[in-house]
Design goal:
Blueprint lengths: L2 H18 L4 E4 L6 H9 L4 E4 L3 H15 L3 E5 L3 H4 L2 H10 L3 E7 L25 E4 L7 H19 L5 E7 L36 H11 L5 E5 L7 H12 L3 E3 L15 E2 L2 H4 L3 H5 L5 E5 L6 H9 L5 E5 L13 E4 L2 H9 L9 H18 L8 H11 L5 E4 L3 H9 L8 E4 L9 H9 L5 E6 H6 L4 H6 L4 E7 L17 H9 L7 H6 L3 E3 L4 H13 L3 E7 L2 H24 L1
Parallel strand pairs: 1-2, 1-3, 3-4, 4-6, 5-6, 7-8, 7-10, 8-9, 10-11, 11-12, 13-14, 13-15, 15-16, 16-18, 17-18
Helix pairs in contact: 1-2, 1-6, 3-5, 3-16, 8-12, 13-22, 14-15, 14-21
């Protein structure tokens, strides 16, 4: 069998096995050495290709697509620094537990380490950020080799999805010529009729034994002032079972904005969503000492909650994780419960007696009501960042996705997202918490053809303007609310802002860009507006949701005014709560 046929059948068997293992989308950055993979991916009838020329943007696009679709997404690039540009998104995928399949083309072994062009060391180049690395064999034509590629394709997809999800890297050395021949008969192999993976994997569900349940029950049976905390997580079944347990136990639930608990049709009587606003006060934190804390999901975004955890290091704490892994950055002595969180709630609920309405729960609810009143009722109708975020959260459409940038964007959503019956999902890159790649990730989420709204700051937007090309190229429905305070607004709240050298602060931390983003909108053919009032902002949002394609709504603000506006809100809330506690 001559080279081209060997190359074609080898690659086609691999790609076909990806499809049988559940891969439906591949993001390709064109290049020469990756020709066999790219062309074969495009040829396969069950795989949808997305062509993005910038590898860094492509990887974050794939990340967003994988988050929204909850499926493994494949990435294909050529050899050399193309693969290195994947690194930031792979780091984020690792920490946010998102399955990606990284397929890098490479020079064959005889062209490595001799000064050949576009030949860098790609062996284990992503280090510990991938769950599995494998250097694929050079193409050969035999049943054993076809079974080899199918086995590794199946294993790669399953590994990305098993346990704690994450990225997997396969490196493909290819010799020239590189162009497959799709006129060959039966290139997808004999297994085409079997619609199942070459190596099926079966994962069981973890649950506690009766002895373990009894042990936890004995630890908690005399404690009444419990606290549930739900951080960033995506399990759609958790909301109902945890509110059922909390209602029976009569304890509050502190729900992070990415917990998926603040929105939806489940009961929200025990949910406290404004805790970040009042836990900022040291006296209030001291008045709310719990008997135990049980946390689900990652650590919440709120820094005030982090202080609260540190100050209560002596009380029993539990972290419920579906798989083995440690996400406990506070450093407290913690009971790690590795079990399916939905089953955990159902198991514990059977052993918890019905409690009457508790003063402990009432206290949290009263504080939540006070904070909610000050955050929702706004007498000053100026278009501040806070007011714009609040209005956006009210206007975001049902059954859509809100993608949230880091730094101030996610913190404003934490502050202003109130409980609601509206059904929409919230996503963010909160693994490594970087400001890079956010535009591309949000556009990737829109590749599912679900309408996406992105809330983002000007620095993060600038970092990833290349991501807008995919929205233009594929006519995706994305509304971007761009909070432009001309720099890094988050630093205004940090100790760096207290320096007396304001010029140095602006140079190193404020970092004003002085960019006119209307030119960016024109470059990518986006609908663009700069509302000056709350009413014009509402109108711009409404219009963007009626139109197809990309819209950019720029809200201009001042960093110093924004800081004082937020601090006044927090002070009003804390003063009223402290007064209530003294009465």
């Amino acid at each position: 069998m001559e080279h081209t046929e060997v190359l074609t059948r080898y690659t086609a068997n691999f790609v076909d096995e990806l499809a049988k293992s559940g891969v439906t989308d591949v993001v390709i950055s064109p290049g020469s050495r990756s020709t066999p993979l790219s062309m074969t991916m495009v040829q396969h009838p069950q795989i949808k290709e997305w062509i993005l020329v910038d590898e860094r943007s492509a990887a974050f696009f794939a990340l967003g697509l994988a988050k929204e679709s909850e499926k493994t997404v494949a990435l294909v690039c050529t050899s050399g620094t193309a693969a290195a540009n994947y690194f930031p998104a792979i780091v984020e995928a690792h920490y946010s537990r998102v399955p990606l399949l990284i397929l890098t083309a490479d020079r064959p072994h005889e062209l490595r380490d001799i000064g050949a062009p576009q030949a860098i060391d790609q062996i284990k180049m992503f280090g510990g950020y991938v769950k599995w690395f494998h250097e694929m064999a050079l193409p050969e034509a035999s049943d054993a080799m076809f079974h080899y590629v199918r086995r590794n394709a199946s294993r790669a997809v399953q590994t990305a999805n098993q346990g704690v999800c994450g990225p997997v890297h396969l490196n493909f050395p290819f010799r020239e010529p590189l162009v497959p021949d799709f006129n060959l008969e039966n290139i997808w192999g004999e297994e085409l009729e079997e619609n199942r993976p070459f190596t099926p994997f079966y994962d069981g569900i973890k649950q506690l034994t009766s002895e373990q349940i009894e042990e936890i029950k004995n630890l908690l049976q005399h404690h009444k002032k419990g606290l549930f905390v739900v951080g960033p997580q995506t399990n759609k079944q958790l909301a109902q079972v945890i509110v059922t347990l909390a209602t029976k136990w009569q304890i509050p639930i502190l729900a992070d904005p990415l917990s998926q608990l603040r929105t939806g049709e489940h009961n929200k009587g025990n949910i406290v969503e404004t805790y970040d606003a009042f836990l900022r006060d040291n006296a209030i934190r001291k008045s709310l000492t719990p008997d135990f804390i049980i946390r689900f999901g990652a650590m919440p975004i709120s820094k005030a909650f982090l202080f609260y955890m540190k100050e209560n290091a002596h009380i029993p704490q539990f972290v419920v994780e579906p798989f083995v892994g440690i996400r406990e950055p506070v450093g407290n002595s913690t009971n790690m419960v590795h079990v399916d969180p939905v089953l955990f709630c159902k198991q514990v609920e059977k052993h918890v007696p019905h409690q009457s309405r508790s003063e402990w729960l009432e206290t949290w609810i009263k504080m939540n009501d006070i904070a909610r009143y000050h955050l929702v009722n706004e007498e000053d109708m100026k278009l501040t960042e806070g007011n714009a975020t609040r209005i956006l959260l009210e206007q975001v459409p049902e059954e859509s996705t809100l993608f949230i940038g880091n730094s101030m964007a996610i913190r404003d959503v934490d502050t202003f997202l109130m409980v609601s019956e509206k059904r929409f999902s919230l996503l963010a890159n909160r693994g490594a918490n970087g400001i890079d790649g956010v535009v591309s990730s949000s556009v990737g989420a829109g590749a599912t053809r679900r309408r996406v709204t992105l809330l983002i700051g000007d620095l993060s937007f600038y970092h990833d303007m290349n991501g807008l090309l995919a929205a233009k190229q594929y006519h995706l429905d994305v509304t971007i609310v761009l909070m432009n305070n001309n720099g890094g607004g988050i630093f205004s709240y940090l100790p760096q802002a207290e320096t007396k050298n304001k010029k140095q602060f602006e140079l190193l931390f404020g970092t004003p860009l002085h960019l006119d983003f209307k030119h960016t909108a024109a470059l990518y053919e986006a609908n663009y507006s700069v509302p000056k009032s709350i009413e014009s902002f509402k109108a711009a949002l409404h219009q963007s949701y009626q139109e197809r394609g990309l819209s950019i709504i720029e809200v201009k603000s001042d960093r110093t005014e924004n800081k004082e506006w937020h601090r006044n809100k927090w002070q009003q809330i804390q003063s009223e709560i402290l007064q209530m506690r003294c009465e």
